[in-house]
Amino acid sequence: MPDNFPGADSPLDLGNVTKALRERLGGLKIIAVVVVAGLLALSSVYTVQPEEVGVILRLGKYAGTTEPGLRFKIPLVDDLTKVPVRRQLKQEFGFSSESVGVRSSFVSNPDEANMLTGDLNAAVVEWVVQYRVVDPYQYLFRVRRLDATFRDMSEAVMRKVVGDRTVNEVLTVGRAEIEGAVKVELQELCNQYETGIAIDQVVLQSNNPPEPVKPSFNAVNQAEQELERLVNEAEAEYNRVIPRAEGQALQTIQQAEGYALDRVNRAQGDATRFNALYEEFRQAPEVTRKRLFIETMERVLPKVGRKIVVDEDVDGLTPIMSFEGVSAARTSRQVAAQQAGEGTP
């Protein structure tokens, strides 16, 4: 027994022992109280980061939301949950990122990625949904197992949208339209179930045909590209040839219209001249007949190189040399006058 223990040199006294124990335990109680008080004080202080808010449950019931900064709560009564409301969150579908960096690695998830298109073709679709928490209360308390539920909703909406489109739209031209449609429908579901989530973006990462049929799809794509090239060439040729043909057609039409107008004008002029001659003929038939005959011979005889004049009263033929210009015209007029029964000077 220690020397400083009360009653060490005297017989055992239970009263003294009890008193000594009480003194020692009293000191330990004070220390314990101080330690507990310190722990409670530390547990009542918490910090909310700038991109977060704190949701307080008091005895299991929602008590409010705290903003970023140094905050206090009631120890052993309040329960704190921090929710990132100013940070963009994302979930990956059809694949998962194992490491992100210079050499990123991904693991595919065929159960999520394999889908059936509207024309009964298979496609491998991988996508990412980026979202934010806009209502911490709904995010924590309206839907149980929200992460799993959100994944199920995203997958269901994507399968519905892909199932309404052809494989060509899914793999090539319809990517932007699919992203927009999935974003709208997924946001409607989130609002309907009060998830407290706002969809920022739906991004299609990779749309490919399944590996066993990829060569066939590539061949089809090449054929479609060749078709598009031929169509573009045909349109270019059309744009080159058709305007020229239309111009030629317009020119031909204008020439025909001009020719028709010329012929009509000539015909009208001939008719006017004929009417004038007819009027003269009606007034002096014999004179007009002779004048017409003379004018006709003046036009015809100069074109004949050699002329032979035949007189009924002469048995032989008299050759007359060809005269050019005025002499020929005069000779022709004389011959015509003789044949018409007129005397020549």
What is the averaged pLDDT score? 80
Amino- and carboxy-terminal Cα gap: 192 Å
Give the number of helices: 9
Low-confidence stretches: 1-10, 320-329
What is the overall silhouette?
A: rod-shaped
Taking all Cα atoms into account, the compactness measure Rg is 58 Å
What structural class do helix, strand and pairing data support?
Answer: alpha+beta
How many domains in all? 4
Reported by name, the CATH topology of the largest domain is Tetrahydropterin Synthase, Chain A
Give the strand tally: 13
CATH architecture of the largest domain: 2-Layer Sandwich
The level of helicity is 40-55%
* CATH first level of the largest domain: Alpha Beta
The fourth-level CATH homologous superfamily of the largest domain is: Band 7 domain
Spell out the helices and strands N to C: HEEEEEEEEHEEHHHHEHHEEH
Q: What share of the residues does DSSP label as strand, in percent? A: 15-25%
Main sheet, how many strands, which sense, barrel? 4 strands, antiparallel
Key structural traits:
9 helices, 345 residues, 4-stranded antiparallel β-sheet, rod-shaped, Tetrahydropterin Synthase, Chain A, 53% helix, 3-stranded antiparallel β-sheet, alpha+beta, 4 domains
How are the SSEs placed, and which strands pair?
Elements: H1 14-43, E1 45-48, E2 52-58, E3 61-66, E4 69-72, E5 78-84, E6 89-93, E7 95-99, E8 105-108, H2 110-113, E9 114-116, E10 122-133, H3 136-141, H4 146-163, H5 167-173, H6 175-192, E11 197-208, H7 214-283, H8 285-300, E12 307-309, E13 318-320, H9 325-339
Antiparallel strand pairs: 1-4, 2-3, 2-5, 6-10, 7-8, 9-10, 10-11, 12-13
